[in-house]
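Reading a protein record of the kind used here takes little practice once its layout is understood. An example of such a record is reproduced below.
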Amino acid sequence: MDEKPVCPRCGQDPSPYGAIAFASAESPTAAEVICGRCAAKLQAEEIKSLDDADKLIAETEEQIELVERILSKFPEMPAAFGGLDSVAMTPMSIYRTLQNCLEACENRRLELFQAMDIGQRLRHELDKAVACQDFERAAKIKRQLEKQS
């Protein structure tokens, strides 16, 4: 009897979330097949700033909306053929992959945000408010920053 593959990082069946061959810089010839969730987490670890996280989150949300529109127009989308579910690219597997990426990016953003001191957080929020032209919010944040000084 054939054993189902499992992700060596989390022990889960990779097929519901897509399997990804991953080679590290330390051992580029020894690739491992990991699940989409673990691949998304590895990718998110590369995010170094809140701005990068915000950009990736926005892009991923746009892609999710596009796939949701496709799925709503074609609700009877066929599943992958037997045995190919771990590697087939279907709209639903793409949707799941994007959901994994969004979750990983949001978690990484939270990690980066929590690592900042209150002044850095406020300055970041001030920059975002100004960029969105939310000047009322920007003024409130600026007052908070002045209290911190």
Q: What stands out?
A: The beta strands are 19-22, 32-35. The first strand starts at residue 19 and ends at 22. The radius of gyration is 20 Å. The longest helix spans residues 91-115.
